[in-house]
């Protein structure tokens, strides 16, 4: 028993990711849950879906084989580097270097190597309408370059807040406090990808978290999925819908470090 506990403790320390202690309802024994750093794929229990399975309002996380995408994944220790919204009628909306834009399903499928979809369980027609209105209003807005530049050092510094066994409330307070210092208080009407998704959902009265959208990365959205351990407090866990593409090489996933639970 002692050996097992020592092995588990060593694994947690090496993983260096957010954790949570859950209690089983019947035996009442504590169970340590670790943040899932590996992406569920069709090859390890995930689902393969098609664009026809998407619904308006779905949150789509993705990555490419580009140097920028790999850099983001290395900094955030996650297998995704980009976030977008599916608006329905074969249209995606996203914030990229050129600004907020829409892309057709075919363009999106051709441009990304890995694409995975998540869904807010409480979304309904009124919220879908609000997401569409917000997105159409902001198409053409400039990219939040300053915000994404500040994200890099912040993503590295915040890892101290996510050391294993730090309680969730302490972790949340630490990350938000660090964001207030490193990201500053000045805001503008520009967006980077995950910030746009968070602001759109906030506008639709379905906030995913009360945290400042500027501190949320695609990796944070990934960890908001049901059954995972989020880095910041969430208002609603996202449902995993499935993978439209799963082209990230195994070696790249391994570089993300950590172990799935």
From TrEMBL:
SUPFAM superfamilies (UniProt xref): Cysteine proteinases (SSF54001)
Cross-referenced InterPro entries: Papain-like_cys_pep_sf (IPR038765)
Gene3D superfamilies per record: endopeptidase domain like (from Nostoc punctiforme)
Highest taxon, organism lineage: Bacteria
Name of the protein in question: Distant relative of cell wall-associated hydrolase
Organism: Hydrogenophaga taeniospiralis CCUG 15921
């Amino acid at each position: 028993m002692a050996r097992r506990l020592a092995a588990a403790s060593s694994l947690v320390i090496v993983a260096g990711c957010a954790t949570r202690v859950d209690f089983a309802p019947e035996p009442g024994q504590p169970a340590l849950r670790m943040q899932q750093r590996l992406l569920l794929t069709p090859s390890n229990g995930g689902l393969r879906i098609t664009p026809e399975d998407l619904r308006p309002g779905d949150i789509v996380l993705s990555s490419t084989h580009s140097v920028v995408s790999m850099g983001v994944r290395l900094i955030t220790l996650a297998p995704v580097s980009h976030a977008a919204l599916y608006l329905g009628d074969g249209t995606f909306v996203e914030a990229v270097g050129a600004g907020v834009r829409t892309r057709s399903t075919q363009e999106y499928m051709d441009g990304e190597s890995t694409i995975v979809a998540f869904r807010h369980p409480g979304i309904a027609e009124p919220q879908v309408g609000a997401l569409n209105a917000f997105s159409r209003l902001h198409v053409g807005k400039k990219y939040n370059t300053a915000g994404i530049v500040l994200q890099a050092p912040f993503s590295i510094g915040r890892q101290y807040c996510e050391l294993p066994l730090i309680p969730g409330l302490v972790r949340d307070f630490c990350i938000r406090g660090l964001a207030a210092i490193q990201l500053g208080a000045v805001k503008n009407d520009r967006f980077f990808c995950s910030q746009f998704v968070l602001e759109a959902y906030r506008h639709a009265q379905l906030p995913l978290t009360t945290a400042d959208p500027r501190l949320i990365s695609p990796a944070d959205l990934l960890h908001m999925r049901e059954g995972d351990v989020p880095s910041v407090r969430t208002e609603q866990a996202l449902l995993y819908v499935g993978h439209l593409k799963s082209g990230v090489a195994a070696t790249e996933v391994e570089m993300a470090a950590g172990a799935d639970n």
